[in-house]
Structure formats: structure tokens, C-alpha cells
UniProtKB/TrEMBL annotation:
PANTHER family: INNER MEMBRANE PROTEIN YBBJ
Pfam family, one: NfeD
Protein name (database record): NfeD-like C-terminal domain-containing protein
InterPro entries, per database record: Membrane_assoc_protease, NA-bd_OB-fold, NfeD-like_C
Domain NfeD-like C-terminal: residue ranges: 79-137
Entry membrane topology: Multi-pass membrane protein
Chief localization: membrane
Compartment list: Membrane
Keywords: Membrane, Transmembrane, Transmembrane helix
Gene Ontology CC annotations of this record: plasma membrane
Residue intervals passing through the bilayer: 42-60
Record SUPFAM superfamilies: NfeD domain-like (SSF141322)
Amino acid sequence: MIWFIAALVLAGLELAAGEFTLLMLAGGATVGGLVEWAGAPTWAAIVAFGIATAGLILFLRPILRRRLHGPKALDTSQQALVGATAEVLEDVGARSGQIRLDGSIWSARSMDPSETFTRGEEVHVIDIDGPTAVVWKRE
């Protein structure tokens, strides 16, 4: 019964910490309680607690932390378009051109001033320079 009380206390303390370490210890305490409840000796429950806690900390905690600390909002800035593929609508050269990017028509220029892209070609957006997309050939 002490194992389960410890698991509840650790899980409750996890609400204040938010780092998943105490939650992993609570999971280990639950496993230790289940092992002892099944009739195993206390030393076996302690070993099970240690193994379960180590496994949870090494394998489950990193996954939970990645999910928790992942991107919080959708990036809707212009820089989110870098790397996108676009269709050339008007020949793109060193200084001018137009592309269809993410459903909108954008001014564009070639990353290499000596390179020109013709209508219908697919290009990659390398950078966004103000209202102009800097593009390069699709590979």
C-alpha cells in the first residue's frame, strides 16, 4: 500500500514540477507496488521499481518532453515559406519576375543573377527579401 501512496504523492508533486521526472518515479512506484502485491518479496519490488523508473526516464520521458516542448503555434510569417516550391508565372531573372507561392502571386528574383527561369518552371524559395522571393531551380 505504501508503494501506491508514494506513487500518488509523486504524481501530485509532478503537477508543480512539470519536468516528468517525478511522474516517471510515480510509474516506477506503481510497478514496485504491483510486484509486491503479486506476492514477491520487498527486495524484488525495489529492484522492479529501479528498473521501471530507469526505463521510463530513459525512454518515455524524452518522448514526452519533445511533445510538450514542440512548436506551440503555427508559423505564419513570411520566413515559413522558405523551402517551399513555387511555379514561375513570369520569367524570373536577376531583378524581376513573378511566381505563384502558397496560392499567392509574389515578386521574385533569381538567387544567381546569371540564371533565368521561364514560365511554367518549378523553383524553390531560398529566401524572402522583403516583398520579393529569392528563388533557385528545383532539384
